[in-house]
Amino acid sequence: MTSTEKPYQKIPIQDCGELLTPIPSEMFIFESPHPYQKLGAPYQLSPVSSPYYLREKVGDRLINAHQYLQAEYPHLRILVFDAYRPIEVQQFMVDYAFQQQLKATGLTLELLSEQQRQQLWQEVYKFWAIPSRDPATPPPHSTGAAVDVTLFDMVTVSAVNMGSDIDEISSRSQPDYFAESSEMTELEYHRNRQILKQVMTRAGFLQHLHEWWHFSYGDQMWAWLHNRQNNTAAIASYGLYS
Asked: What cofactor(s) does the depicted protein rely on (predicted)?
């Protein structure tokens, strides 16, 4: 397995020691059982066996995002797809993503050339962080400071169509993929993504450059994005939580 260092992993971490706290279920939409649990992800190996947890102040900001959304779009809610992700689950999902990419080739692992195998891993690691236990390079979700979210329509009682699925390994996952489209349906996807981004960034989160659903506050990725936008030298407040 190859490893591709992410640029944000060079950001130093000074963990503030905040505990994980549950995301209030009365405000947000959850899917139960969680999609990764349906696949067999080993949450039972972690002291925190639910993905619906965040560091305390990160959770507070998610509540703020909920309030901003409600003020402008009272028929919408934030659907929390994933938040805290133990290393064991990160490893399980990285392996699962590789198997899905392999399946799409129509080949078996035994028939892959070394170059093909490396290419598959590179595709996986464009979207999935390496399940590192190194305190200096934690996966964002394993810090409790990253959250995957989408919108849920309380009128239709269904998730809002954002133009691609969460975790989809394709160019359609780029936040602005549909921005220049001439198709009305695709422009609606972009509008939906913009609504989500606006309430999350207003609450202090920053969006992953390549994933419309991924937002973080206070982890290495957030600090790296913040530094790029503001020409500062912020460090991360949240490291590996275990």
From this structure: Zn(2+)
Q: What is the pTM of this model?
A: 0.94
Dist. CA 84–CA 3, nearest whole Å = 22
pLDDT tens figures, 58-107: 999 999 999 999 999 999 999 999 999 999 999 999 999 999 999 888 88
Rounded-to-integer distance, Cα 205 and Cα 212, Å: 13
211 is catalytic: yes
Residue keyed to tokens 């972690």: 46
Q: Is 214 annotated as contributing to ligand binding?
A: yes
The C-alpha atoms of residue 236 and residue 180 are separated, in whole angstroms, by: 34
